[in-house]
């Protein structure tokens, strides 16, 4: 899973449509697969991480500005203050994933607005530019196979958050629970990684682990199994 683009529309302090290129760059023939955001306090760095969390996890997103609010209240407060609530806001995340050795582009988009005093949210998941209803319907389960929310802070973090994570023992539990669940990256070419999954074993599935891992099966609608 390679993140390519984040788009925010009227989200928090970002007014209008703002597009952030997340594609890994290179210099002097060397790839530099780390994207860093720099800026003054209050400049919107953490807001970008919140946008990624929100796009992926929706109601379960662990956003810095949620602070105990209900999901609807958080979405309402996340609409830029200069924009009418009826116009609303949105976030979308585009990423690349190789399936059966073929690279595909996926987009997860959430839009919301206030209608008749209530929050109306829409979720769309598209594969190669076409909205897939099966992926959309089961996205909350599918995203757990890509980036489990319990360890998502190890993938998307700011300096303060990672310091806090390293200093607390609370991080040990989710990491321990996920220790038997990992993603294995192989590559048929330098630009086309293939994803295989190795799930945590239960007593009745342990004997099938080798077969499942070798075949690279990912039994989820809309995305075919990966292969070695």
Automatic annotation (TrEMBL):
Residues 198-210 have a biased composition (Basic and acidic residues). InterPro entries: P-loop_NTPase, Rad50/SbcC_AAA. Residues 191-228 are annotated as: Disordered. Coiled coil: none annotated. Residues 8-162 form the Rad50/SbcC-type AAA domain. It holds the Pfam family AAA_23. It comes from the Bacteria. This is AAA family ATPase.
């Amino acid at each position: 899973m390679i993140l390519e683009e984040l788009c925010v529309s009227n989200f928090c302090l970002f007014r209008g449509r703002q597009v952030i290129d997340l594609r890994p760059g290179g210099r002097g023939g060397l790839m530099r697969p780390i994207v860093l955001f720099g800026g003054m306090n209050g400049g919107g760095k953490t807001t970008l991480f919140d946008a990624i969390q929100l796009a992926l996890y929706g109601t379960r997103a662990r956003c810095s500005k949620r602070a105990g609010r209900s999901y609807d209240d958080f979405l309402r407060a996340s609409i830029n203050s200069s924009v009418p609530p009826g116009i609303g806001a949105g976030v979308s995340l585009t990423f690349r994933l190789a399936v059966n050795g073929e690279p595909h582009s996926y987009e997860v988009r959430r839009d919301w607005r206030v209608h008749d005093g209530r929050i109306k949210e829409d979720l769309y998941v598209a594969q190669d530019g076409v909205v897939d209803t099966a992926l959309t319907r089961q996205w909350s389960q599918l995203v757990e196979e890509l980036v489990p929310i319990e360890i998502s802070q190890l993938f998307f973090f700011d300096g303060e958050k990672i310091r806090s994570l390293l200093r607390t023992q609370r991080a040990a539990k989710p990491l321990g629970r996920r220790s038997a669940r990992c993603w294995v990256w192989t590559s048929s070419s330098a630009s086309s990684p293939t994803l295989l999954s190795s799930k945590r074993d239960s007593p009745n599935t342990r004997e099938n682990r080798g077969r499942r891992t070798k075949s690279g099966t990912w039994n989820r609608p809309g995305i075919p199994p990966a292969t070695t």
